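pasting for ref
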Amino acid sequence: MAFVIKYKNINPILIILLLLVTFASYSQTNNLVSIGTKDSIHSNILNQNRQLLIYTPESMLTDTSLRYPVVYLLDGEMYFHSFTGIVNQLQGSYIPEMIVIGVVNIERNFDYTPTTDTTSGFKPNGGGEVFTNFLDKELFPYIEKHYPVAPYRMLVGHSFGGLLSANTLLKHTELFNSYLILDPGLWWDNMKLIKESKAILSLQKFENKRMFLSMSNTMPAGMKEVKDALNDTTPATN
C-alpha cells in the first residue's frame, strides 16, 4: 500500500503563513471551475445531516493505490476555498498531497465550545465533547470507508474552532497526529481549559504529536494572562 507523505514531517507553518492568500489554483472540466465536491453524512450522535466539502488530489484519479493524509478543517464553509487553494498550490513541492474535509457548520457556538458557560451570551453552547464524539465515531469511519486515506490526521480550527482543537489536543490527544490551532477562544468559560491544562500536561503523553499555535497581538483585556499561561504550559511536541 503506497503512502504519499514524501517528507518526514508535514510542515503546518507553511500553510498558516499563507492562510490569508486569496488566490487558488483550480481544475477545469466541461467549462466548470471546481476545487472540490460536496458530500454529506447523517449523524445519529448529533441527530443531524452534516454537509462536507471534500478536496482530493488529482493523482487520486490516475493511481488508485495511493493513500493520503487527511486534514479535518473546521468552519469549512468559511475557509475551504482559501485553504484548499493553498494546499493545491504547495503540494508536491513543500507539502505532501492530501485530502481536505471541510466540516460545514450548523451551530458552531454549540459544537465548538467544550463546556457550558451560562454567562457567555452565546446560546446554545457546551456541545464540544458531543461534536468530538461525532468526529471520532462517525465521521472518521465514513471518510476512511469512502476515501483513500493514510493513517495520518490533522485538525485545523480558528477561534471557537481553535478552542475545540485545543480541547481535543489536551483531552483526546490520540484522535489526530497534528493540530493547527489559530487564535483559539481560550477565554471561554473563565479560561477553564487553561486552568485545567497544567494538570493535564503533567500526566498526558504527547509523543509523535505536532502542534502549531498562533495568537494575534491584538488581544483584549485579560488575554495576556492566557498567552502567559500558554507559554508556561504548552507541551514540547515531537
